[in-house]
Amino acid sequence: MTSALPPGLEGNLVEYVRGGEGDWLPFDQKRFYTNAFVIQGDKILLGWKKRGFGVNKYNGFGGKVELGETPAEAAMRELKEEAGIVAPLEHAGSLLFMTKGAGWAFQIEIFSARSYSGIPIETDEMRPEWFSFAPPASGVFDTNESVMPIPYEKMWDDDVYWLPLLVQGRKFVGRADFVMEGDEFKMARHWFGTIKSDH
Ligand SMILES: Nc1ncnc2c1[nH]c(=O)n2[C@H]1C[C@H](O)[C@@H](COP(=O)(O)OP(=O)(O)OP(=O)(O)O)O1
């Protein structure tokens, strides 16, 4: 399926999913962030964010790209700082993330690795925890499972659209615009695509 790309996205992209309504939010600059995920077999390491932006959500490990760093270097640094581990991260996708009223966009480069060294540790910012992305043998997860399924209901609203692609090793690009509802960020509009050579 093809459609006009949202402002800020470019490339040879094939639409994967889109939704929501209203105009795309305007922005005049991008700020650069990273987000990193480690996969082991059918499990993925997420962190419970203990403070700051996105507090009380599960997410990958990441933050701002500092001056003089590449996104890959920043992703390695943040993974070590926030989870205490080192991994051979590879670029997995790119996300443009807007919040109403900010005027600037988060450009988030997303990385993944299928091995790591070290032992994940809780830090001031994140509490690491493994989750399963494989369906349970019985077809239904019960609360006695030792590893629970990915807790999308406790993550950013957009993650459910692209995390399955990351797990499958398919490169993705997308945009998600958020508005505040009370003290919660709610996704108002989204578009995700895969890169054409990926098909
Ligand atoms: N919508 C969405 N989905 C998935 N991930 C994210 C979003 N929005 C986001 O901001 N993020 C990610 C991108 C980053 O990994 C973090 C936000 O970074 P944060 O920890 O706030 O960055 P800093 O304040 O710079 O923190 P440090 O650099 O000090 O770690 O969430």
Automatic annotation (TrEMBL):
Listed Gene3D superfamilies: Nucleoside Triphosphate Pyrophosphohydrolase
Keyword terms of this UniProt record: Hydrolase, Magnesium, Metal-binding, Nucleus
Keyword Nucleus listed: yes
GO cellular component, one term: nucleus
Primary location recorded for the protein, binned into one broad class: nucleus
Keyword set includes rRNA processing: no
InterPro entries in the cross-refs: 8ODP (IPR003563), NUDIX_hydrolase-like_dom_sf (IPR015797), NUDIX_hydrolase_CS (IPR020084), NUDIX_hydrolase_dom (IPR000086)
GO terms, biological process: DNA protection
Annotated catalysed reactions: N(6)-methyl-dATP + H2O = N(6)-methyl-dAMP + diphosphate + H(+); 8-oxo-dGTP + H2O = 8-oxo-dGMP + diphosphate + H(+); O(6)-methyl-dGTP + H2O = O(6)-methyl-dGMP + diphosphate + H(+); 2-oxo-ATP + H2O = 2-oxo-AMP + diphosphate + H(+)
Domain Nudix hydrolase: 29-172
Domain of life assignment: Eukaryota
Enzyme category, top tier: hydrolase
SUPFAM superfamilies attached to this UniProt entry: Nudix
Entry-linked Pfam families: NUDIX (PF00293)
Cofactors that this protein relies on: Mg(2+)
Transmembrane segments: none
CDD domains: NUDIX_MTH1_Nudt1 (cd03427)
E.C. numbers: 3.6.1.56
Places the protein is found: Nucleus
Example GO molecular function: dATP diphosphatase activity
UniProt family annotation: Belongs to the Nudix hydrolase family.
Task performed by this protein: Oxidized purine nucleoside triphosphate hydrolase which is a prominent sanitizer of the oxidized nucleotide pool. Catalyzes the hydrolysis of 2-oxo-dATP (2-hydroxy-dATP) into 2-oxo-dAMP. Also has a significant hydrolase activity toward 2-oxo-ATP, 8-oxo-dGTP and 8-oxo-dATP. Through the hydrolysis of oxidized purine nucleoside triphosphates, prevents their incorporation into DNA and the subsequent transversions A:T to C:G and G:C to T:A. Also catalyzes the hydrolysis of methylated purine nucleoside triphosphate preventing their integration into DNA.
Quaternary context: Monomer.
Protein name listed in UniProt: Oxidized purine nucleoside triphosphate hydrolase
Organism from which the protein derives: Rhizopogon vinicolor AM-OR11-026
